[in-house]
Amino acid sequence: GKLRTLLGGGRAAAAAKDGWSTAHKDERHLNVSLMHGVAETIGFMSRRQKMEALKALRLQLKRQGGPLAGSPERPFPPLVGVRVAGRVVAGGVPPMTVCLLVREPTRAPPPEPRAKPPPPEDPLDTEGAAEKRKVRKPWDYAVKSIFAARKETTDAADMVDFAHQSNRLTNRSLEADWAKCLKLKQERFLDLIEKGATTDAHQAVKAVKQVFEEHYDWLMYIFHVHASKDTLATDAAYMGWLSFGDLMTMAGVTSEEPLQEPSGKCAQLDLDAVFKAANFEANGTDPNDDNPLEALTRQEFMEILLRVARAKSGLGSEAGQLAPALAQLVQLMRGNLAKQAELNEHEASAADLRHEWRMSQFYKEETDKVYRKWESRLHELFYSHVDRINGGLSFPCWHLADWQWLMEHCGFHEDASFTREEANLCFYLAKFETVDYLKDRNRYEGMDWLSFLESFGHVVRYKEMPLVATLEELGLDGSAAKLMERLHQTGKTWDGFMAEQGLCSEKQDPFHVELDQVFHLLFYCVDKYKLLGPFLEQHKSKKATKSRLASRRSGPIASGQQ
User: Fold this and answer.
1) What string of DSSP letters covers 242-304?
2) pTM beyond 0.85
3) CA distance 146 to 453
4) Which of 80, 81, 87 is nearest to 103 (CA)?
5) Which residues lie across from 388 on neighbouring strands?
6) Which of 558, 449, 562, 456 is nearest to 514 (CA)?
7) Residue 266 CA neighbour count, 13 Å, CB half
8) pLDDT of 312-361, one tens digit each?
9) Which of 12, 83, 445, 471 could form a disulfide with 38 if both were Cys (CB 3.0 to 4.6 A apart)?
């Protein structure tokens, strides 16, 4: 209504009735039709902008000396051009179309796009790659590592073993072994600590347990490490007499002198006696009474330490004196074994360094890539050697005999830097702690899939490998497998080659590079000697025997289970 009033009323209505041209707009323009001086604005012009435009047109017409459009003196408006709100409004006479360049309605400005770094001109630009690495999320070993499944397959429920968990409230393995000492040894164990003690609530018994709690992780590590050194090692799970005697000698406990001599050391005869006493089992009390070679179990190792502490200190039936004697024995063992480790340049024989090694070298993205690269072949190798019991797949694991066979036939023992004892040690170091070795005996004695993978990482720690740069200089494309092939052709040995090149030095390739070389060497030997087939033949008779025994106990095996 106001629009018609401003421009002459009826003419505007008549013009609108005849049908004005529709608006056609783009980003900034708005078409407007003028008929007989009546301006109609459409589109997204605000009401205020419409009023400003019309007032400006009326004022301009008056200044030019003519009446409003549609009068007898001037039937048509002249060509005008006015400025409205900073924009030029251009008008023309009919039948021309007038285009009003007006300001768009006020709107919230669109968000500015984030500036993206320009792509490097050269796809091999290292600086551009460095910028991409900066914005990429860091690699999380607990999520992306091939070993992340350890959170589900180990008793620790973590990629960090029990001994290195800061939030561990109770030592579950100690509690399990302590319960076995009380149950399997019956009253003999309590009488050993305190004559007449009936429960572990006795003060003297609690004091002894407290000493074990303080040193349990280290004692079990030493137990397994020295058990694996035995030439008759039984899955690095039980300690035979030879291993125990060697441990006591290295720890400075034994002596050729009699017990009563002032040296304060036990005689060898005393160790023989305590070993037999600790290994004695009452009939039917120990479900693990078939432990190989009459070796020591974990709880028997704890008992024998008590007997050695009593014999070494010359204690009789004095009440409450065994706990201090045990603490002194452990401190003596720690000090002497540390000196021996430093002398032999083998720190792992006296201290568990696996956690630091895993965090610094093993749980790394570069190492994980190497394992992913060889995963399919390692999987084939592992599962082609897993024992089958009772017609079905038991807990998939390798035993020490399987590992020793592989190392022997792949020629890993041809150089002096990697002995059979070190191969046994790699077998043990790769495994995580098992809480109850009787309940999970296969896991305790054997090496599961992830431990099998880690064992090759420990091989890298002990086996001397030539530098990749040296192999490239010799025209071997930096491959240890090609080096082994050339050695076989020339009749030389790995040890001889390393001596000739003078490669036994402190300079080494990065860990993941040496790991990749170990896998090249391993599968070269596996393919060359066709080790997958012979290994299965080696276990064929053992599997058949187990199957026959199972069929006698439980009858025919269902086809589905088989």
Assistant:
1) HHHHHHHHHTT-EESS-TTSTT--EEHHHHHHHHHHHH---TTT-TTTT-GGG-B-HHHHHHH
2) no
3) 10
4) 87
5) 393
6) 456
7) 30
8) 887 665 556 899 999 999 999 999 999 999 888 888 889 999 999 999 99
9) 12
